[in-house]
Amino acid sequence: MDSRFDRVRYHTASNVDDPTYWPKGLQKWTPAILFQIFLYVAVCLIILLTIPNSLFDPVTLSVTFTIGGLGLWRYGWWFTHAVRATIYGRFVYPKMRSEGQKIWNSGWRPRHMHFMMTTYREHREITEMVVRSIVKEIVASGVPGTIWLGSSDRYDEDIIQDFLYREARDVDITLRIIRQNVSGKRAAIGLVLRAMCRLPVLDDDLVIFMDGDFVLAEGAVSRCMPLFKLYPDLQACTTDEEVICIGPRWIETWLKMRFSQRRLAMQSHALSGRVLTLTGRMSVFRAKNLKQLEFIRLLEADHLEHWLSGKFRFLSGDDKSTWYYMLKQGSHMRYVPDALGYTIEVIEGSGMERMVQNFRRWSGNMLRNGSRAIKLGPRAMPFFIWWCLVDQRLSMWTMLVSPVLAVSATFLSGFNYIIGYLVLIALSRLLLSLFLFGYSRRVEMSYPWILYLNQLINASVKVYCIFRLSKQRWSNRGNQTAGGDGSQLLELYRMWMARWCTMVAVTLLFVGTVHYTTLVDLPSAEELRDILPTLASL
Question: Residue 347: pLDDT band by 50, 70, 90 thresholds?
């Protein structure tokens, strides 16, 4: 038994409602944490008061006000999400959970429990923990269940079959293996859904989509199922995630920070009866939607027409495709914050390379799906959700404005400006992190700087990806790649055109920001008329 997974076994076996395991509310704010925050703020203030800075010098005053104005806008948007998340988490969802629990306690159960699971050469220990968590949920519910396994390798099938024979022979559970004949996770899901259409899966049956590295926490299923009985118009819901990382400590901290962001945003979105993704880690659907040919084809062969890349198919992002289908149908979707599961990330090789790959995959999926979702318009969804999609496109540019201005102001006024800027970043990201601490298992004082680097790298990767949407790579599924299917000459043209577009976009961003803040004055029309003859004569 691999000792690397001992911590995973401990966490996944713990009771998530136990406050000693997962401190909540004021329990997280220990004296040591409060002292660290006080020391953090004190150091920042001492630097501002003792080291000369040029934040408010006449030359750079407009830069500081521009950065501050953008910050107020972004912090206001963040605060809006925080307020909405609090309303959903403190008032709306507790009522939903209470009524759903009454339905469950009254004896209502789904007719059957369907688990749609895909996996690809996963570690044996992880696969067994995943299947064990499914078996526990089936036993706790007291209804029969079926695991629909989308598989491309005998290795995974043997592990699951062997486990069920050893530990679940007395459980009313059926394993249906659908061996895919086309590579890729999307093909596997499509074949499973087509198999469901041929067998007695009823329209009102509930199907749980989950990945092969996602371990269900106790009660995850029982907290989702009754909501579909409570709300007949509810078509899909997605759940909470916690990460357990077998790899560098900094990667785990970064992922935990991202999951904290996800919880805050998901609760804010769910207040509008929609979410921005139906995560493939675990989501629950009414079967009638999954049996639609349009739904199946969208999963199998989702594609996009792009002015530069032409028509290309999506490699990853199946959760975004299912979400887009439900969004287009005007379906009611919810987030269930106390239905928890554990994502197990095994980092082998370079942690930095894995982080960049994840950013490219996540950002690419967002850009590919966000543009067509925006085109549906605010009438197809609540206006707040539509504006969230628009804001995702805006924030990738606005996030880059402040570092561009700070570096430019440093060159003009000296090194003191960047010192003051970094102190402002430290304080502002601490303020944002205070909101995240409420959604994190513990308070991590590295969050402010991880948050800033996350925003900066994410925005940069999005700018890079927006002109390279067809270029896709997914190391988790056998190192799949996509893009570059044309002739060598065509691909060379696309590569250089993408580089040209990126350069023009970044240049316009730089020139526009430094001109707007009067750091650099662009030549007037009259000056250009005087300069052009001179340039022409050279």
Answer: confident
pTM metric for this prediction: 0.90
Percent of the chain with pLDDT over 90: 56
CA-closest candidate to residue 234, choices 382, 86, 96, 112: 96
Confidence of residue 455 (pLDDT cuts 50, 70, 90): very high
Q: Say which amino acid occupies 218.
A: E
Mean pLDDT score of the chain, rounded to an integer? 88
Q: Which CB contacts under 8 angstroms, 24+ apart, belong to 448-454?
A: 448/40, 450/253, 450/254, 450/257, 451/257, 452/425, 454/254, 454/257, 454/258
Alpha-carbon distances of 225 from 106, 208, 228, rounded to whole Å: 13, 10, 6
Backbone φ and ψ of 23, nearest 5°: -60, 140
Concatenating the DSSP letter of every residue in 251-280 gives HHHHHHHHHHHHHHHHHHHHTTT--S---S
Where is 176: in which H helix or E strand? strand 173-179
Instruction: List, for residues 277-334, the tens digit of each pLDDT value.
Output: 998 889 999 999 999 999 999 998 888 888 888 888 888 788 899 999 999 999 999 9
Between CA 275 and CA 332 the distance in angstroms is: 9
CB-based contact 235:332 (threshold 8 Å): yes
For 350, phi then psi, to 5°, come to: -75, 120
Q: What's the Cα-to-Cα distance from 366 to each of 276, 318, 466, rounded to whole Å? A: 9, 11, 10
**Looking at per-residue confidence, does 530 or 508 come out higher?**
508
Between CA 367 and CA 371 the distance in angstroms is: 6
Q: What sign does the dihedral 448-453-459-465 (CA atoms) show?
A: negative
Residue 345 — φ and ψ, nearest 5°? -105, 120
CB atoms within 10 A of CB 335: 29
Q: What is the mean pLDDT of residues 495-499?
A: 92
Using alpha carbons, list the distances in angstroms from residue 136 to 33, 61, 132. Answer: 37, 62, 6
Q: Give the H/E segment covering residue 510.
A: helix 488-516
CA angle 340, 208, 323 (to 5 degrees): 90
Cβ distance 242 to 441 under 8 Å?
Answer: yes
Concatenating the DSSP letter of every residue in 311-336 gives: EEE-SS-HHHHHHHHHHHTT-EEEEE
* Nearest one of 279, 317, 281 to 470, comparing CA atoms: 317
**Percentage of the residues of the chain whose pLDDT score is greater than 70:** 90
Higher-scoring residue by pLDDT: 176, 10 = 176
Question: In this predicted model, what pLDDT tens digit does every residue of 52-66 receive, in sequence order?
Answer: 878 888 888 888 898
Helix segments in 185-248, DSSP class H: 185-198, 225-230
Residues 6 or more apart whose Cβ sits within 8 Å of residue 333: 234, 235, 236, 237, 238, 270, 273, 274, 275, 278, 323, 326, 327
Cα–Cα distances (Å) from 446 to 47, 357, 387, 434, in that order, read 19, 22, 30, 12
CA distance 418 to 416: 6
